[in-house]
Amino acid sequence: MQSKVGMKPTTHKGKKAILKKEPKLVEGIKETLFLKGSKASECVVSVMKDLYDIKKPHACILHKKHCIRPFENVVPLEQLTSKHNAPLFMMASHNKKRPHNLVIGRTYENTLLDMIEFGVENYSKMQDFKVAKITSGIKPLLVFCGELFNTSYAYIRIKNLFVDMFQRERVEKITLQGLEHVLCFTACEHRICINSFRILLKKSDSDSTTPKIDVEEIGPRVDLVCRRNKFASEDLFKQACKMPKAVKIKKKKNISEDKLGTTYGSIHVGAQNLDKIQTRKMKGLKKTLSEKKSSQKRKLADHSNDDVKKIKAAT
């Protein structure tokens, strides 16, 4: 239960609901909202359900049809994502002009940030692959193939959106046995091919303890043809990616770390007078007559300068 606007929550459940929607320093896994438009073909709905199975349990699917045209009026979609606390969304639709249409996007502070429209082609269901599937909730390994993901502005933003949607929780270390699922995105001209694989650990031929890695396609397999897009401005995108100061790790002065994790510290030493350093008294290191005379002259000049300064200070 959530209280009315401008009033404090009256129940503990209402307070928890408000605190859950408040912004946090470290955000959890982003929820994704899956929904259907006023018309949706079987093909595009099946694609959406397969992607929903990959995203579970951090996903919410709405079975009721919604008369929403996001590229004409995005307000109803923003209201739905805000209601279900899901900053990511995927919408299936179908019409004569744009058949088998899939709209993928995300919001920032309950307003639209990025949105891309794809056409579905060459689709193979997950059920068509008669192999063992992965367990639900496994963090996938995301692989992006193709130069367009590094050179084209639109494909760079699409890559960022796919990472945002499928990355799940952040981890610093992972075991080899923890790698079970691979999602491969291949960029071609005007399309992105998506393939899903299961990683198999087999016994290596040699005496090595490292197992032999093999992959097996488990589906779905689909080609997404790029149609319309609506990207946020550079200023808004930078603001959405900005990290709070409390989360940033402060860099310690004079301390560095190499790739192997060894910590080094640097010490700053003042200028040293090499003439006063005591060295071994060897014949080869003794000063010559000319060096002795020059050092004596230097000392006399220093003494005279000091006397002049003292006289000036006294007067």
Low-confidence stretches: 1-5
| CATH topology heading of the domain at 29-231 | Rossmann fold
If classified by CATH, what would the architecture of the domain at 29-231 be? 3-Layer(aba) Sandwich
CATH class of the domain at 29-231: Alpha Beta
Distance between the termini: 86 Å
Give average pLDDT, whole number.
Answer: 86
- Total strands: the figure is 12
CATH superfamily name of the domain at 29-231?
Brix domain
Radius of gyration: 33 Å
Globular, elongated, flat, extended or rod-shaped: what is the shape?
A: elongated
Overall description:
With 315 residues, the protein is an alpha+beta fold. It has a domain at 29-231: Brix domain (Rossmann fold). Helices cover 27% and strands 28% of the residues. It has seven helices and twelve strands. The strands form two sheets. Strands 1, 2, 3, 4, 5, 6, 7, 8, 9 and 10 form a ten-stranded mixed sheet that branches. It has a two-stranded antiparallel sheet with strand order 11-12. A hairpin with a 7-residue loop joins strand 3 and strand 4. The chain is elongated, with a radius of gyration of 33 Å. The model is unreliable at 1-5 (pLDDT under 50).
